[in-house]
Amino acid sequence: MASSIRVLYVHDGPDVADSTVTALDHVRTDDRFTVTTTTSASDGLDRLEADETFDCVVSAYDMPGLDGIEFLAAVREAYPELPFVLIAEAETGSETVASEAISNGVSDYLHTEFISGRLLATRIEAHVERARTRRERERSRELLQHTEQLSETGGWEADAETGEQRWTDGTYRIHGLSPESDFDPTVDSGIEFYHPDDRDRIETLVRRCMESGEPYDEELRLVTADDRLRWVRTTGEAITENGSIVKIRGAIQDVTERKEREHALQRSHEEYQQLINGMNETAWVIDFDENFRAVNEAAVEMLGYSRAELLSMTPHDIDAGLEPGEITALIADMPEDEIQVFETVHETSDGDQIPVEISSSLIHYRGETAVLSVARDISNRKEREQELQRQKDRLDEFASVVSHDLRNPLTVATGRLELAREDCDSEHLADLEWALDRMDELIDDLLTLARKGEQVSEFEPVALEELAADCWQHVETPRATLEIEAETDRTILADRSRLQQLVENLFRNAVEHGGDDVTVTVGSLEDDAGFYVEDDGVGIPPTDREVVFETGHSSSSSSSGTGAGTGFGLRIVEQVVDAHDWAISVTDGAEGGARFEITGVEMVE
């Protein structure tokens, strides 16, 4: 044997037979054995309790206190598998003693007259080897059972001639049976457990393996004894002796959870594919290795590639607007719980380039984190933007020309007016002066509309009360009055210069429509929703409120017969509001005049 054997020898001292002493001396001199001696059964029990590493007990029958049979019974109660050799002297040994020893589970029974050192060593070695083999088998069986339970696996073996089978405990459990059940497994009874639609398949595989030795490895459905549908992986191989198949041996594993996960992922993939296919815009899923994982029909149609071709490509292959490093960074740095929006250009299989707006977000796809991107063709929008840019450019050119061509004769007319005043005093000169001033204002407004557009520069905190007071100084208001409500002490976030244009034009509009003695009030709206500018003039009829911001509109309520309402003032107001992403509405003032409410304004604490 590969390892040493520890022996506990228990005897009664000086009365030990010479043959036993000789035999034990032989054992002691053998390097395989280590012998520990005690002189009573009680001492032996103490040594066993203190040190459980003994491999065998050798005991005399005649001992004071407990005799050998009683000692054997005590050892068997505490150590049922420990080898025990009982030695009886010729004068005390009898068939009765031998029978009692066997009844109490003795491993070997020897007479001193027949004992020798070689015989004792051989017997001890044989019993220890059997005990160790038995323990190893039990450990292996426990390990097999534990492994089968953890992996939900079982094994089986079938006689190729009779079809009788042996199942491991795991195989019984997979079939919904207890290992202690009286079920008698055979090839035919085992096949009956399979789903009716899979039964012919498993029977063909097993018969072919038994007849030709062809192995198999399949995943099929099994209906357990308690009517549960399970997916199993079943394997089989032939065992041959002298060229003939004598057995087939195989394994069975419950793979239901894996199959359900696979089916769920497949259903999710199919549902997701149907979802993105139903989208009108181009959509695809990209993994973090920058590969297309799914594409919809719109992508196939727009880009001109087949689905298989796109799934073999990367975003780099179709993007003509971003550098490769930019695409990699966009994918790698995709924010969680946010949609990332950017513009780029896609190139089709024919080489056409399409401007697109991409909206991307993180999703879970087939158990992994991926990026869903939706691309919208913005060709029309880009064309409109380019056309609009051309029209602003043209308007700016027109405004400059008009401004230059009008300023010169306007300057001449203004100078002649002054000379006319020196020559005569006519009531018509005042109206002429007003008309010339109005023309100058219209030129300024035209330039503002053309050159400022709906753009704003940098936003900054602006004190509304202070701004309103400054704007009032820039308006011709000889007899008009400005009132600023106490709660107007608010600071808003805005482009100061453009906000000043808005307020000044509302002031001018109030003076022009409300008369020279109009009162203009500025105040804050409730809940810090914004601010208002109102007057106590004649107001704006409801029929005019929808079109009052249109360029060139003249209110029917104008108090001036000179067309004071005609111009660009309120159009500039609306333009500034739109540029700030605010909203403006017209309603009645507290005193019956016009009230302009600007909402959506961001207040600063």
Short description:
This protein has 605 residues and is of the alpha+beta class.
Describe it for me?
The structure is a single chain. It is built from 17 helices and 23 strands. It has 605 residues and is α+β, with helices and mostly antiparallel strands. It has a five-stranded parallel beta sheet with strand order 2-1-3-4-5, with helices on both faces. The protein has a five-stranded antiparallel beta sheet with strand order 7-6-10-9-8, sandwiched between helices. The chain has a five-stranded antiparallel beta sheet with strand order 12-11-15-14-13. It is elongated, with a radius of gyration of 52 Å. It starts with a strand and ends with a strand. Residues 555-566 have low confidence and may be disordered.
What strand order characterises the main sheet? 2-1-3-4-5
DSSP strand count: 23
* Overall spatial form: elongated
Q: What would you report as the Rg, rounded to the nearest angstrom?
A: 52 Å
Helix content: 40-55%
Catalytic activity: ATP + protein L-histidine = ADP + protein N-phospho-L-histidine
Pfam families: HATPase_c (PF02518), HisKA (PF00512), PAS_3 (PF08447), PAS_9 (PF13426), Response_reg (PF00072)
InterPro entries: CheY-like_superfamily, HATPase_C_sf, HATPase_dom, His_kinase_dom, HisK_dim/P_dom, HisK_dim/P_sf, PAC, PAS
GO molecular function: phosphorelay sensor kinase activity
